[in-house]
Structures are given as C-alpha cells and as structure tokens.
Amino acid sequence: LEAQMGAAVDAELRGIAVQYQTGGMPWLARVVAARSHQPGASLYFVTDAEGARVAGNVETVPTAVLDQPEAVAQVVPYMWRDEQGSQRPHTALVRVAQFSDGARVLVGRDLSERDALVRVVQRSLVLTVALMLALGLIAWIFVSRRVLKRIDAIAETSRRFVAGDLAGRLE
Fold first, then answer.
1. pTM above 0.85?
2. What is the DSSP letter of 75?
3. Cα 24-25-26 angle, rounded to 5 deg
C-alpha cells in the first residue's frame, strides 16, 4: 500500500513539475490552489526561492523536509487546515522537488486513511481470533464431555465383562 502511495506521489510530482515549466510560479500557484480543493486531494506545499509559502493545502512543514529535494518519499508530520480554518496534526508520505530558480514544491498523500484501515483490520483480526478461540473452547468442552461419557460407559461395561457379567452391551 505504501509503495502504491509512493508511486502516486511521484506521478503527481512529475505533473506539478510540468505545470511549473509551462507557466512558472503564477501558473503553478493557480494549479495547486485548484487541485488542493478537489475531494481526496493530495497534499501540496509550494514555496518561493526564499522559502515563503506560496500555495498549498498544508499550513506548515518542517524545514528539514523541504531541505531534502529529490529524496525518496518519506513520512513526515504536518498541520492540516480544513475548510473551517482549524488545524490538526497529521502524518503524510511526501516528496519534495526543487526547481532551477530555488522554488520548492512538496507533494504528498495523507496517511490517516491508511492508518485507519490498518486499525480496522487489526481490530477485526483480534476479534476474529478471540471469537475462534472462544468457539473452539466451547466445542472442545462439549465434545470432550460427550466423548468422555462414552469412554466411561465402555470402561464400566468392560469391567463388568472382566468380572464375569456378560449381559452388558457396549454402546
């Protein structure tokens, strides 16, 4: 899942680079602003050559992340700003590119949905294993009692046979 997200981030970053080459920073800022407001949007953070935020749907990014352009995708913390303006801490898989004039763009994918899916699967797995163990224990108790009753009955009948009482039946 993380490899697929990394490939999606790389493809998005290539598309952003093409947009920057097409129209420069003003065009890139408009493209990023439009993409930032789409449902399920990637994360964008565009800075100018001095490091000032130009566009994007991410409020802050650690400077250490922006100082690693062309690095492999990495998981980083960030502050997410929703439509009402409130901010919440999140984590994302991101990659940074630096353009020839020093401007940088960060593109990423939020990991909260993936993390939520992992938690749901883990919880389901734990509940399934607990249910299987409980049902297995109940079945073991039920079967063992029935089997032990029959074995006890066979043992009692065998003792009577040994004692000379041949009138009994094995069941």
1. no
2. E
3. 100
